[in-house]
Amino acid sequence: MKQKLYDLINKRAGLLQQAEAALGADNKSEYQSLMEQITNLNGEIQRVQDLLAEQDRQMLAAPGPTGSEAMDMIQERAAALQRGDDVTFTANEVRRALSNQTTLATGTIVQPNGAGAEIRDPVGNVVPSIVDRVRVVDMTGMGSFMEPYVITELDAKGGKVEETAGTARTASTDPTFGVAEIKPYELSVTSYVDRNIARLSPAVYYNKIFGMSMRALRRKLAELIVNGDDPGTPTFFGITNAKNKASANIFAEAALGAAIDVNTLDTLYFAYGSDEAMGAGARLLLTKASLKALGQLRGTNEKRRLLTITPDSTNPNSGTIVDGGLVLPYDLVKAVGDTKLLYGDPMNFEVGLFGDYTIRVDESVKAVERMYAILGDAFVGGNLVVDKGFVVGTIGG
């Protein structure tokens, strides 16, 4: 069914390009014929998407293996890791882990056997929450993925009855479309852990390796989601350099002045969305330094703080900023940098998983330091799939 969806979407993308060419050549009849085909495809695509969405919802909601089945899987994978063999996690296993950060916690399946002490993570070992909020799609087996989106909609015309009667009506402005491409990018992640991890029970050992490898993947994904893999010619398109097949920007831009000030949030807030809508589900992505600068803004008379910043008690990476009657949710993302603030709905960004996530443990990389290297490899892709799905605000630009 997923292959059918990919085929339909790629077919629609081809028809859209043909329709654009026909429109440019002023071939109205061919354009109308192609648009009718696209309309019919849209209905079929929607039906397949609805079915897959329900299947995905059931898959993500379903609990993983439990009891003896879970322990057998853990024992088998732990033994493979200790031998230095590759262990693969399917795209759906990775999706479940990315969509539910609590599955990465250690200790949830611990069954100590007197094998040793826990290997503790650093203080504040938090990965950016932006990874939890974007759309993650299994694209296993695809060479690339084309996601069409609307740039401008059909424009209606009007006129006085006494003036338009018996005359040719003014033609409506035709809609325009873009195609966002998601291509596979080879992602490698590396984490290090003290070799004392080998003294843990198999269950704890496996859970620790799994948690560290997934956190490393999430941290790297957070960087890619913001900036892509290459500022100039990316394979993985980030929010700040998202382009469609015609090399046009998918993101919007806003100049925020020389420094963060009382107008910064207003500028971002009103730059997002259409001329008639504010845009729903948006969040602010910024660094800790930028959040601090916002918190230090003071009034001119009473010198009170202008903004109320409230971190999420269950997730120190997120929170809300209250500016008068305006409430802006935020996520801290180091990759944004201190000269930018991003504002938009993370669901406008799509991450594709092109196959399994392979992990192995290598004892030779840092043998002198008595460290084990956890090496992970995956093929991922990403792009914005909604026109002006994010506003990229620049400070001092």
From TrEMBL:
Protein name: Phage major capsid protein
Taxonomic classification: Bacteria, Bacillati, Bacillota, Clostridia, Eubacteriales
Statement: the UniProt record of this protein carries the keyword Iron: no
Coiled-coil segments: 31-58
Keyword Coiled coil: yes
Keyword terms of this UniProt record: Coiled coil
One Pfam entry name: Phage_capsid
Cellular compartment(s): Virion
Domain Phage capsid-like C-terminal: 119-394
Domain of life of the native organism: Bacteria
Main location: virion
InterPro entries cross-referenced by the UniProt entry: Phage_capsid (IPR024455), Phage_capsid-like_C (IPR054612)
